[in-house]
Protein: Iron-containing redox enzyme family protein
Organism: Cellulomonas cellasea DSM 20118
Amino acid sequence: MYLPTPRGPLSSALVPVLRGPVPGDDDAAPALPVADALAASTDLLEDDDVQLALFCLYELHYRGFEDVDDRWEWEPGLLRARRRLEDAFEAELRERIKVPDAHGLDQAGVAETLFTMAAAETGPGLARYVGKKASEGQLKELLVQRSLYQLKEADPHTWAVPRLAGGPKAALVEIQADEYGGGDPERMHAALFAQTMRGLGLDDAYGRYIEELPAITLASLNAMSLFGLHRRLRGAVAGHLAAFEMTSSLPNRFYGNGFRRHGHGPETTLYFDEHVEADAVHEQIAGRDLAGGLARDEPELVPDILFGAAVCLALDDAVAEHIMSAWQAGRSSLRAG
């Protein structure tokens, strides 16, 4: 992936900095208008400039950019800028997203609360629409919308592995091992998604469609990175993964049906079919052994476990609402790339 086209003053300042040389010990830190961008934003979750800048800073910790020196990953000036963006982003999430009361919840109570949250999720009906009505073009859009995460599927949650111990760590590793194909690179879920993209004539190169992804899609990705990259938020990443798995199995059945409805065969639908079965198992492990086990071992993390789950559900709904609103209005859900 190459650095994307800037979308405002902050990303316009960040992109040329990242293309330049990494400063030495005696050089000035890169000057980025973070405070101005935050002050000017009317909605951080829908702010293309802020979310793109935060995404670029996070991506330095994943696969990086072809046109960026890898040493930028730990440059102190960028880390300070990222922290200011993260603080504002996290504060916005905590203020806007309703979280169930965590008082008095034990291991079983946390698991049951997560299952209740997932069961209550109604959303805008994107999966059912895809299963029954979506056009071939809309199927392609769905894949593009999800490509930036699915082509590195599981990576944000994997950051939590060294931050956990005992039963929760074992549960997370069990889930992630399946996500990574159980040692078979061709069965990695990211590889299966790439196969689905190729089945619809899309480019499966990682980051190929970054220019077309709206701010709310980037915000959902950035929330995962925020939780995964901070040890203090290990409860949130556990809750996020639990909610993610609990709301995956049935929608993927609908998605697979939507692709079959347009004549796509097993190679193209394998990604969705694999998740119908795998996530039905993963939701139990994630809810009871990972999130519930973490609540047992570190009860002070219960509020963050529920927070992470609530963020997952709320942002998934927001992305789906964005897509459905566009489609119902007869337009694309993607930005003009």
